[in-house]
Each structure stands twice: as structure tokens, then as C-alpha cells.
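Hi U.,

Before I forget, here's the chain from the pilot set. I'm dumping it here mostly so it's searchable later in email.
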Amino acid sequence: MLKAEFHHFGVPTTRKQENENYIEGAKVFVTDPEASPFRVEFLRFEEGTPMPPEVSGGAHAAFLVNSLDEAMAGRKVIVPPFDATAELRCAFIMDGDAVIEVMEKR
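Structure:
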């Protein structure tokens, strides 16, 4: 059975944020949601980002799941699985009109 635990709320922005980290492959600057009292992650995308408009142009909710494959099953996958860190594998899916990031710890 799929278990999902809320991790963060991702919000695109055009303003530079304090303590941004750059993710070169996605051409995006991100903040650490664990540093936010409300677990908000701000994402500032560069022109030419390979991320789809559903991700770069709108907010998303992110969940830690026990099985990335199970979370993606039967869903529209808009960003296939990728290694966000050495310990974290992620993907973006659609749940109806909602953009969801699913994250699996190794």
C-alpha cells in the first residue's frame, strides 16, 4: 500500500531568494523547504529550463512515498524519475489538475 507523507509546497517565483541552491540540469534555483516554517520551497527557473510548464509555471505539493513506482502507477508522469540527491529519487506526476512531486528515499 502506498504511503505518502507531506514534505513541501513548491512555489515558482521570479525574485531571487536567500540561500538558493542551483540545480544545473533543471536550470532552476531552489530554496530549502526545511528552512521554512511552512515548508515552502521557492523555485526560480532560468529561461530555457527543461522542466515542463506545469512545473515551472505553477505550484506543486511534494510527498515522500515508500514506492516511487507505485506512486506513478496509472498517473500521467510529467517528469520521469531522476536523482535529486544521492539519497533522493523524485518524479512529477499529475493527480487530476494538481501537480505532485513524489520523492523516494534510498
